[in-house]
């Protein structure tokens, strides 16, 4: 039990942070934290190379978040538009500098946040994201593109600038 407690204390913040970054929901991130460490306790013997324990734990966290998104999905319809922006995030990321990114991310639904975080931050391919989320690769690209467009429009509003504003219009 002491070893499990040490593992938990070492990795709890990283697991929670990743889940929170993807879901932007503290309660859901706490639930994911519990799920992940329950899986760790039951599957620790599955780890072949303990030098890769962090990667293994990160994969379990991703899978738990994706399962959560699937279970709580409101809009199960896909998109069939094959016109996507290229790697627009790199060009738009500079325009988002100085903005309240947490507030901006909160405007996205869980699936949009997951695709955006997995592609832009964690550097997964759209094929890998699609496989994890149970959607098509083109749907992953579409969600990513529309998320960037939504964030770009919202970033133009003063309330997301990270500066205090006296009133919201």
Characterization of the model:
The protein is mostly helical and 169 residues long. It has eight helices and no strands. It has helices at 2-23, 26-43, 53-71, 88-93, 101-106, 110-121, 126-133, 137-155. The model is unreliable at 75-99 and 164-169 (pLDDT under 50).
List strands and helices in order, with pairings:
Blueprint: H1 2-23, H2 26-43, H3 53-71, H4 88-93, H5 101-106, H6 110-121, H7 126-133, H8 137-155
Helix pairs in contact: 1-2, 1-3, 2-3, 6-8, 7-8
Stretches where pLDDT falls below 50 for ≥5 residues? 75-99, 164-169
Radius of gyration: 18 Å
Structural class: mainly alpha
Estimated helix fraction: 55-70%
Distance between the termini: 54 Å
Quick description:
The chain is mostly helical and 169 residues long. Helices cover 65% and strands 0% of the residues.
